[in-house]
């Protein structure tokens, strides 16, 4: 959901990187953050367990500078690909304006790609977001590996339709900026066309079920990757023309701004509770594995 804050003279949009475990979501944000051309970056935060595995999600708010008289802030998030963190994925998707679906190009990951995409659409609907209207970009990652599926083969089972498809090798930085540019362009197109991505017929959002597991299988799990990111003016370099040329957006009053901040505070507290619960479960699982190893 695009937020226009008149008091701060700022427009904020939210972009989420989604996909199966180990597909390269965090690598994309790492490369964006490390780009020397990007300035005014905030702190990249990484959360890890004792086993050096990063957990949950990462985010990197990215300021585009002043465009059309208003500061534009793009918040970048990734969601955990592991099976156990569906509640966290669902929560992070709330209020999204765009999604980059990162698919692994290896043939062995085909089913995980399909299941993760289905999970994405289900969680978008659960958040009252129309999967057919949200700004969606597909990234076919790991094109540098041998024996990968062709673009035609991947498009045949992922069915991107009119959504842009970008080939990438994120580990080398190839296609990372192009993906980000395509996603921001789609978000701005929705703004210019006044596209309503909400599923208004859906009921009130229920609180997240922190015990729920995702509909994906263990094949889509992997080392959970989470880095929490910071602010950067980077994507402005990817957009040569004024992307807000004739964008008409509704402005909120100071009262609306206060209500929005209170809502964000509530969401932040809810997310913290989700992360703490998931971390407790992960630690319990770690202890169970350690006990089994000691009994061998």
Give an overview of the whole structure:
- It is built from six helices and nine strands; from the N terminus they run ββαβββαβαβαβαβα.
- By secondary structure, the protein is of the alpha/beta class.
- The protein has a single domain, classed as Rossmann fold (3-Layer(aba) Sandwich).
- The longest helix is centred in the C-terminal third of the chain and has 42 residues, at 254-295.
Short description:
The protein is α/β, with parallel strands linked by helices and 296 residues long. It has helices spanning 25-34, 86-93, 110-126, 151-158, 176-192, 254-295, and strands at 3-5, 10-18, 45-46, 58-67, 70-78, 98-104, 135-141, 165-167, 227-228.
List keywords for this structure.
single chain, about 300 residues, alpha/beta, Rossmann fold, two-stranded antiparallel sheet, 6 helices
**Measured on Cα atoms, how large is the radius of gyration?**
19 Å
Shape: globular
> Helix share of residues?
25-40%
Q: Tell me how many strands there are.
A: 9
Give the helix tally. Answer: 6
Whole-number tally of structural domains: 1
Q: Per CATH, what is the topology?
A: Rossmann fold
Q: For the record, what is the CATH homologous superfamily label? A: P-loop containing nucleotide triphosphate hydrolases
Termini gap: 52 Å
Tell me the strand percentage band.
15-25%
Architecture per CATH nomenclature, i.e. the level-2 architecture: 3-Layer(aba) Sandwich
The ordered H/E elements are EEHEEEHEHEHEHEH
As residue ranges, the low-confidence spans are 48-60, 212-253
CATH class descriptor name: Alpha Beta
Q: What is the SS-derived class?
A: alpha/beta
């Amino acid at each position: 959901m695009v937020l226009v804050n008149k008091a701060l003279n700022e427009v904020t949009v939210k972009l989420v990187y989604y996909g199966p475990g180990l597909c390269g979501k965090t690598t994309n944000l790492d490369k964006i953050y490390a780009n020397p051309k990007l300035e005014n970056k905030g702190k990249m935060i990484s959360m890890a367990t004792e086993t050096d595995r990063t957990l949950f999600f990462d985010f990197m708010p990215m300021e585009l500078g002043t465009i059309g008289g208003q500061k534009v802030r793009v918040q970048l998030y990734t969601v955990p690909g592991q099976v156990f963190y569906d509640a966290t994925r669902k929560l992070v998707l709330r209020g999204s304006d765009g999604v980059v679906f990162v698919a692994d190009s290896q043939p062995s990951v085909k089913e995980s790609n399909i299941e993760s995409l289905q999970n994405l659409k289900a969680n978008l609907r659960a958040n009252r977001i129309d999967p057919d209207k949200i700004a969606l970009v597909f990234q076919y990652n790991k094109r540098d590996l041998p024996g990968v599926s062709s673009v035609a083969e991947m498009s045949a089972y992922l069915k991107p339709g009119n959504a842009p498809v970008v080939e990438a090798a994120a580990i080398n930085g190839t296609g990372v900026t192009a993906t980000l540019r395509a996603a921001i362009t789609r978000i701005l197109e929705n703004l210019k066309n006044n596209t309503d991505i909400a599923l208004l017929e859906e009921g009130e959002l229920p609180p997240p079920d922190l015990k729920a597991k995702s509909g994906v299988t263990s094949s889509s799990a992997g080392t959970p990757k989470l880095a929490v990111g910071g602010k950067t003016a980077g994507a402005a370099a990817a957009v040569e023309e004024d992307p807000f040329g004739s964008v008409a957006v509704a402005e909120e009053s100071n009262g609306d701004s206060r209500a929005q901040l209170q809502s964000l505070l509530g969401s932040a507290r809810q997310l913290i509770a989700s992360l703490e619960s998931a971390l407790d479960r992960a630690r319990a699982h770690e202890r169970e594995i350690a006990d089994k190893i000691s009994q061998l």
